[in-house]
Predict the 3D structure of the following.
Amino acid sequence: KASDSNLYFGTTLGLFKYDRKSDSFHAMKDFDGVFVVDIIEDRKGSLWMASYADGVFHYDPQQGQIENYRKRSEDRNIPCDKIMSLFEDSSGRIWAASFGAGFFTLDQSISINEKTQESLPSNVFYKMLEDNEGCLWLSSDKGLTAYNPSTGQLRTFTESDGLLDNAFNYNSAF
């Protein structure tokens, strides 16, 4: 549910908006065939959608404008098109957790992957949360990673630290 009370639903076939007047769902045409796996609303009221194969979509409902962030895009380039989830941190930065390219901010000011951080256990991340100290916590297929954007410090927790298993599931955070 968005702050304007509209309901949006991401599916394997696109993005749908619920119309209360007609009591029905309407496909949003610019998202036909897009496998939407996550939707967040930023502090400005814009919607961000993560997709399984088409990168990230930014939708401004007030203006009706849509931007698509893709790998190899000239003006909105991101390292990977397979995005598992999105997150807005306390500084207003939009982060993407990807399946294959680690995690990064959409403005590309920060990109953390196995090439930039040798201690990173994997390039597959599912979900991201922020604690009260500004540290980001990310679930992955090889443990739980804590990342401090202010210091760049990174630590991964695994079974040897008390986790029941190293493998997390999609959207495994709350």
About this structure: The mean pLDDT is 93. The two ends are 17 Å apart (CA to CA). The CA atoms of residues 102 and 123 lie 4 Å apart. DSSP finds no helices and 15 strands in the chain.
